[in-house]
Amino acid sequence: MNDIGVFDDFTAVYEDRVVSGVIKEKKQAKKEYDEGVKQGHMMGYAEIKEETPDIMKVQLGNLPPGKTVTIKLSYLQTLEVCQNKFWKFQLLGTLTPRFPNNPNLKPVYRPVPLEMEPAKEHVKP
């Protein structure tokens, strides 16, 4: 992620269930997530921490093991104009390795498959 864009939508789809995100204060959102999971509901929670602003942490609660879930994120960013005629958008497709505090552990690299859909047209009211 970068400092000029924002996420404006989060949706997780599992079989016939859809979990739609609502932007809330972080502590309240985490509390609601934990309570919903305890009650047996399928819940989603996402956050970007100050220590790692380039990584979004997504948690899904009560998703059966071995099942597939589709996560859709919508991201808004002002596009840069290059050479006075081209729009520029850069999406990094790899994660930077994080080196743990324990020097005996090696960083873990995990591939991140990305599927991109054309942006929805946003019309100002």
Topology diagram in text:
Layout: E1 5-14, E2 17-20, H1 26-38, E3 43-48, E4 56-61, E5 70-77, E6 80-82, E7 86-88
Antiparallel strand pairs: 1-2, 1-5, 3-4, 6-7
Could you explain how this protein is built, in words?
The chain has 125 residues and is mainly beta. It has a domain at 5-77. Helix content is 10%, strand content 32%. It is built from one helix and seven strands, in the order ββαβββββ. The strands form three sheets. A three-stranded antiparallel beta sheet has the order 2-1-5, with no helix packed on it. The mean pLDDT is 76.
Sum this structure up briefly.
With 125 residues, the chain is mostly beta strands. It is 10% helix and 32% strand.
Q: Give the helix level as a range of percent.
A: 10-25%
Share of β-strand residues: 25-35%
* Secondary-structure element string: EEHEEEEE
Report the principal-axis shape: elongated
Mean pLDDT: 76
**Low-pLDDT segments, ≥5 res:** none
Q: Given the helix and strand composition, which structural class is it?
A: mainly beta
